[in-house]
Amino acid sequence: MTSCVVVEHVSKKYNGKKAVNDLSFEIKRGEIFSLLGPNGAGKSTLIRMMTGLIQPDSGQIRMNGEQVLPFKKEVKRYFSFLPETMSLYPNLTAGETLRFFSRLQRIPRHRCEEVLDVVGLLGFKDKKIGGFSKGMRQRLGLAVALLDEAPLLILDEPTSGLDPYWSSRFKEIIRRKKREGISVLFASHDLYEVESLADRIAILNEGKLYYLGTLDGLKARHPTEIRIRVRFEVPQDPDGLSRELGVAVNRMGDWAELICRREEKVRILRSLEKGGRKLADLHIHETTLEEIYRTISGRAPSPQMDKL
Ligand code: ADP
């Protein structure tokens, strides 16, 4: 698979602080690529540089083999873009908005109704945008981005205002685009959202690339650990338990926390009531991909006993 976007050693500073710090990666043709990271990680700054809205301090970005800046028609025709917040005229109807953008881009008028239908707004085509909810405006923005069927679709936090139904419809729309051979780059702060969608992900943290690869690769890099929290009828010595079972054991008040690998779980559970020990209570916690991500992005500490 050849690359449709190449980002090479790109950096951008704001007020002396690096918003994007020496990023390099490629997006392959036909893939769904997700840019992940907490708020402030640098996703929008990177997307603004990729779409030619701002210039990097250093490094270069090529799209379909062409430098993004200075901006050429060939580059603009290569991608469609849904910014994080889109300025729309409240006095125009949904239909008028689509027709405005279609005229600008010389797109046949029938596409307007097609894309309004895709985002579920055909019934609202004669309604003014001023009365639209945040989610409806977001869907209208997506309709604008879908108008020109460019080979690359760039979406910045496209589901931020959408309810669960439309978030899931959005995923279907993206999958359909991929089947049509369109490459998709989308930014999100929510790993759960991209879990069943992205072919590859890049996780940014404080402007740097923390991880680049598949979700399976991320899982392999952070093998999920199991925490078995147990309370025995008669408290047990954690060091003795650790020696006997061959796993780490932490004392947590009346509870003991045993940390093991997934494949050790059943053996450990079978051993817990050996030698006359009796369990009073038990709780099993498996680390999810979402937790791995939140730990990377510094948004949540690992689960604590007091959350039981
Ligand atoms: P994200 O999209 O991941 O939430 P941003 O790219 O918006 O992150 O922001 C990255 C960093 O750059 C943040 O610290 C943000 O405050 C800063 N930043 C972004 N745009 C500007 C700007 N126009 N002026 C000053 N600082 C900015």
Automatic annotation (TrEMBL):
SMART domains: AAA. One of its GO terms (molecular function) is ATP binding. Residues 5-231 form the ABC transporter domain. InterPro entries: AAA+_ATPase (IPR003593), ABC_transporter-like_ATP-bd (IPR003439), ABC_transporter-like_CS (IPR017871), ABC_transporter_ATP-binding (IPR050763), P-loop_NTPase (IPR027417). Keywords: ATP-binding, Nucleotide-binding, Transport. It comes from the Bacteria. PROSITE patterns: ABC_TRANSPORTER_1, ABC_TRANSPORTER_2. Belongs to the ABC transporter superfamily. This is ABC-2 type transport system ATP-binding protein/Cu-processing system ATP-binding protein. It comes from Planifilum fimeticola.
